[in-house]
ABC transporter permease subunit (Kitasatospora cathayae), 277 residues
Amino acid sequence: MTPGTVSRRLPLVWLALHRRRRMLLTLLIAMVVFEVLIVVIAGTVPTNEVFGARRTPPGAFKAFSGSSGDVSIASYPGLLGAGLTHPVWIALQLTVIGSLGAAAVAADVESGTIELLMTRPVSRRRLLAERAGALIAASVLLNAAATLAVSLGVAFSPKLRAAVPEGGVFAAGLLGCALTFCLIGPVLAVSALSRRRAHVVGAAVVLGAGGFALNFIALAWSPAGPLRYLSPFHYYAPGDALAHGGVPWTSPTVLLGVGLLGLLAAFRLLERRDLAI
């Protein structure tokens, strides 16, 4: 199937990606450069020098290594996991989700072009489905870029290759896709309901950055421990995947389930709302 055929069959997907091609290219390059930097740091710094002689950092640092169990940030899987939960990684992901999520519906409502779009033979379901497809494709591409960068770094470093199972990097990448889908669903629901781009971007920030902060607080302060189950980052544990070569099936199931519920809510809300007000 040629690109021209794809653009004719899925014009809204192609158009959404084409309009933001420079932003997406910049984010992809930034993601690759950042993950390569993390791999270089992880491969050159002896883990016994991380936190000095202390091999068991505070529990809150599990949030930074992407671990819900026994993987310390003072280890090669922990250091690589830190690159997949770092604020830079989160910011790059949220930029894609916030930008394309707002463009799904809310941006057209805010600019007043939604009524013009609806006069063409494009159903509400198709509009949301294709724009959601563009957002999911962009997020998968960003996660694939990070996964490829880490995978190549591990492959070319004997120390990292000995500490990280072959399938661990790809398991972490798949878990990253599940996390972003978990955020995409609710963000699209907000876009389907809202009249302002800012509301959608704000929802992406609250779910992403707020979710990470909630998980950090829950790990740092034991009385708040049960709150970690409300954060998507409790189920996103790339450090564990890198150390053990896989993840419990419950984690991606929860993340994908939340994303699917959000996506279904988005379709329902868009069908029921009055786009004229």
Observations:
- The two ends are 40 Å apart (CA to CA).
